[in-house]
C-alpha cells in the first residue's frame, strides 16, 4: 500500500506517519509512506496515481489542501483523499473533490482507526486482491485464485490453483480481509470457501470444481444452503448484465 502525506509541518507529518505505521502493523498491511512538505512537488512528480491514499493538510502556505485536491482530481487521480485539519470549517467544500474523510488535529487514534478501516474496505473493492505476509515476504493473491482457506497451528492456509500460501495470523483478522466480497462463505469452523469454485452442494459438503471437498457445519446447514443459493442468484443476475 502506497500512501502520501502532504503537510508543511514536519512534526505533524511524522505524527500521522506514526499512526499509519501502527495501523498497518496491527493489520499486517505492507506500506510505503512518502512525505511532501510542499503540495506542488507532488503535482510536479506527475505520479500521484501511484498512491492508494493521500492525506492532505488543509492549511498550508504554498498551496492549500483543497486547491491541491482539485489539481489532483483534474489530473485524473481517482483514489482516496483524506483531509487533515485543525478545523472542519472547510468540510462542506470537500464534497466537490470527493474527499473520503476529514481528520481533525490533534489526531485521535480511535477515530483514525475507524477511518482506516473504511479506507481498507473501499480499497479492497477497488483492488480485487489481498496481501498477506508469508514468512518474511508479502504475497499478493487475486481473489479469484483463492479456492478455499483453512486454519492450522496458528497459520491461515490459502489454497490456490498453484500452491498453498501460509500466513501466520488469526482467523479473525484474515476473515476481515474477505468480508467485503460476497463469494466467500465461512462454511465450517475456521474454513472459508470461494463459492465461485463450488461445483455443487451435496449433503453436508461442498464439492469443489477441482475435486476437493469442503465440510459444512451441521447445525448451520440451512443457513449455509440459503447463502449459497442467494449467491448463485446474485452471480446469475450479475452475468445477465454483461
TrEMBL record:
A GO MF label: DNA binding
Keyword DNA-binding attached: yes
Domain Response regulatory: 2-120
Superkingdom of origin: Bacteria
Keyword field contains Phosphoprotein: yes
Summary of the function given for this chain in its UniProt record: May play the central regulatory role in sporulation. It may be an element of the effector pathway responsible for the activation of sporulation genes in response to nutritional stress. Spo0A may act in concert with spo0H (a sigma factor) to control the expression of some genes that are critical to the sporulation process.
Protein name: Stage 0 sporulation protein A homolog
Amino acid at each position: 500500500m502506497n500512501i502520501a502525506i502532504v503537510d508543511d509541518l514536519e512534526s505533524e507529518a511524522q505524527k500521522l506517519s506514526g499512526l499509519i505505521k501502527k495501523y498497518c502493523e496491527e493489520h499486517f498491511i505492507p506500506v510505503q509512506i512518502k512525505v511532501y512538505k510542499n503540495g506542488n512537488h507532488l503535482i510536479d512528480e506527475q505520479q500521484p496515481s501511484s498512491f492508494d491514499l493521500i492525506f492532505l493538510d488543509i492549511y498550508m502556505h504554498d498551496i492549500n489542501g483543497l486547491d491541491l485536491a482539485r489539481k489532483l482530481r483534474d489530473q485524473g487521480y481517482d483514489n482516496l483523499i483524506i483531509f487533515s485539519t485543525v478545523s472542519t470549517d472547510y468540510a462542506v467544500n470537500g464534497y466537490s473533490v470527493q474527499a473520503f474523510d476529514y481528520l481533525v488535529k490533534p489526531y485521535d487514534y480511535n477515530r483514525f482507526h475507524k477511518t482506516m478501516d473504511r479506507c481498507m474496505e473501499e480499497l479492497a473493492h477497488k483492488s480485487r486482491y489481498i496481501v498477506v505476509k508469508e514468512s518474511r515476504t508479502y504475497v499478493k493473491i487475486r481473489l479469484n485464485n483463492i479456492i478455499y482457506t483453512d486454519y492450522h497451528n496458528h497459520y491461515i492456509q490459502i489454497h490456490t490453483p498453484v500452491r498453498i500460501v501460509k500466513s501466520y495470523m488469526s482467523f479473525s483478522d484474515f476473515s476481515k480481509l474477505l468480508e467485503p466480497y460476497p463469494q466467500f462463505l465461512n462454511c465450517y469452523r475456521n474454513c472459508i470457501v470461494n463459492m465461485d469454485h463450488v461445483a455443487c452442494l451435496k449433503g453436508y459438503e461442498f464439492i469443489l470444481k477441482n475435486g476437493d471437498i469442503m465440510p459444512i457445519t451441521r447445525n448451520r446447514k440451512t443457513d449455509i444452503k440459503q447463502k449459497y443459493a442467494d449467491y448463485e442468484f446474485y452471480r446469475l443476475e450479475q452475468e445477465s448484465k454483461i
